[in-house]
Amino acid sequence: MPLFTRRAALLGAGGLLALPALGRDAKPQPAAPTVWPQALAVPGGVVRLSLGPAATRPVAQARQGDADVPVLVLGDAIAWTAVVGIPLSAALGDAHISVLLPDGGGARQVPYIVAPKQYKEQHLKVSPRTVDLSPEDQARFERERDHQAQVMATFSEQPAGGALQSLRMQVPVPGRRSSSFGLRRVFNGQPRNPHSGMDIAAATGTPIVAPLPGKVIDVGDYFFNGGTVWLDHGQGLLSMYCHLSSMDVRVGDVLRAGEAFCKVGATGRVTGPHLHWGVMLNRTMVDPALFL
Ligand code: ZN
Fold first, then answer.
1. Does domain 121-291 correspond to CATH entry 2.70.70.10?
2. How far apart are CA 230 and CA 211, in angstroms?
């Protein structure tokens, strides 16, 4: 299994490895059945922020790097709620989103606090050779990174499958969770980017279903992630499926929740068949377990 550059790791969705189980995930705390995802204001988590009443849906933004990224807002005229993804790299402590005031009147800040979360750490000793991608692979990787950045910037006001209601997802494929979101991997003492999705081990060819209604926004075969499909569930809530053996959809297809659309495989940089499942809010990969 090759090492690779930190930049490459960013898009390589952690698909490098089918990691052994590290023990069961802690069971999430029960939440009210109508309220999903579960709020957990930690790096890699999700925070729900009450925006109060307004005649029309407020426009909320999160500052990420040097961009203002639109945020998912649900509700009705009586009570709107922003559902905000917190990057794994977020600083702890005070944070906020901005809510635009009507008529170009500026913005108000809605604060929240990012609490620490200790994700599991895994130390691996690997062959000390470095991975310099060949010039061809490096060029391919850079093209794919730019393309994926465009895919990840998708923001549909109204999702194709109808208005967003519940954000509760069904598990896309049954199987053992072989690697958890947030796992910090250290190769030969060098920290790599943490795992940005959930790995579910299953046999090649096992059907994968849409966890929510959604529209297919990308279908491709990528250097690290292998066969990959992205779904748009509306307002910046996206999901990503990697290492697929078969992709039975095209860009623009609209899926119902529970509809099979691709199959588990071992394509891309992996050592065994599994689904790498990513969930993204406001261009931030968050823990898929919070939506189950
Ligand atoms: Zn993975």
1. yes
2. 12
Long-range contacts from 129-138, C-beta under 8 angstroms, 24+ separation: 129/2, 129/3, 130/3, 131/2, 131/3, 131/4, 131/5, 133/4, 133/5, 133/8, 137/223
Whole-model pTM? 0.85
- How far, in Å, is the centroid of ligand 1 from the Cα of 79? 36
> How far apart, in whole angstroms, are the C-alpha atoms of residue 23 and residue 194?
17
Rounded to an integer, what distance in angstroms lies between the CA atom of residue 166 and that of residue 66? 31
The model's pLDDT over 91-133, given as tens digits with 9 standing for 90+, comes to 999 999 999 987 778 999 999 999 999 999 988 877 655 456 7
Residues of the chain with CATH 2.60.40.1590: 46-114
Q: Residue 34 C-alpha to ligand 1 middle, in angstroms?
A: 29
Sheet holding 67-70, edge to edge: 67-70, 60-64, 93-100, 107-114
* Tens of pLDDT, residues 217-249: 999 999 999 999 999 999 999 999 999 999 999
Ligand 1 centre and the CA of 268: distance in Å?
Answer: 11
Second CATH level (architecture) for the domain 46-114: Sandwich (2.60)
